[in-house]
Amino acid sequence: MSAATKEIKRVTTHVLQKMKVDGVKISMLTAYDFSMARIFDDAGIDIILVGDSASNVMAGHETTLPITLDQMIYHAASVVRAIKRCFVVVDLPFGSYQGNSKEALSSAIRIMKETGAHGIKIEGGEEIIESVKRIISAGVPVMGHLGLTPQSIYKFGTYAVRATEEAEANKLINDAKLLQEAGCFAIVLEKIPAQLAKKVAETVEIPIIGIGAGKYVDGQVLVMHDMLGINKEFKPRFLRRYLDLYSQIYGATQAYINDVKAKDFPNDNEQY
Questions:
Q1: Is 259 annotated as a binding residue?
Q2: Which end is more exposed in the chain, N or C (fewer Cβ atoms within 10 Å of the end residue's Cβ)?
């Protein structure tokens, strides 16, 4: 952690904006429980995203669609209880905002009141802009999400890179401008060409955080289970694994099983 990072007592939307202006990259990871959130916060992470990816990595679903608002609130409240410094953003899950802007506002208010989180994240651009405006008008910070939007996976039909064609790229840039004008404090860009992400980051004034969007944006986000190597199957080009926890936990579990079977655990010093 740099000296400048250590000096930040609490990360806020104002701090994040200043980081963009000063050219300080923003670090962001997902977390879904108290224990991991405490470690990330102690380490100095800037943003924790309580992602609807919990549907995949915590519950084992194929997509993010099944997770409910109540389940997101449970995970988010657990995370918020752990943190002292970082900014906590919570995904609005599928079905909690697409219907109309009143439903979107109600969902956002529930998250803020019942979890103590600092903001919400919502997928989409022009098509959900009224919901974004309504939520922000109530004083709730909103982070946008463009590019590959996993809640729309059945519409896309693939997890391939988005916005490779000119028409979709132009729409993405326009959507980023609309989200900024609506009052979003930041935008996540997922799985788009690096040069397009660079153009977006240079076009708008708010922080742009990438996942599979190259190095020219204002910050990076990864899913905790991917970054720590808890998952083995997921191997996209953009992922850098910093640990191989699957192998380490697997080995430790086998060692524990062997010690129990061999009557070596507990030993004389490990009993009362």
A1: no
A2: C
Map tokens 């194929």 to a residue. Answer: 62
pLDDT at 2 (0 to 100):
52
Between 100 and 7, name the one with better pLDDT: 100
> Could you give the C-alpha distances from 73 to 22, 80, 128, in angstroms and in order?
34, 10, 22
Band the pLDDT of 159: cuts 50, 70, 90.
Answer: confident
Query: Is 91 annotated as belonging to a binding site?
Result: yes
**Which residue, among 4, 11, 24, has the nearest Cα to 207 in the 3D structure?**
24
Which CATH code of 3.40.50.2000, 3.40.50.150, 3.20.20.60, 3.40.30.10 fits the domain covering 13-241? 3.20.20.60
Three-class SS string for 129-150? HHHHHHHHHCCCCEEEEEECCH
Q: Is residue 53 over pLDDT 80?
A: yes
pLDDT (tens digit per residue) in 162-218 = 999 999 999 999 999 999 999 999 999 999 999 999 999 999 999 999 999 999 999
Q: Which of 7, 114, 130, 190 is an active site residue?
A: 190
The residues spanned by each domain of the chain are 13-241, 244-271
Q: Any catalytic annotation for residue 181?
A: no
Q: Check whether 226 is labelled as a binding-site residue.
A: no
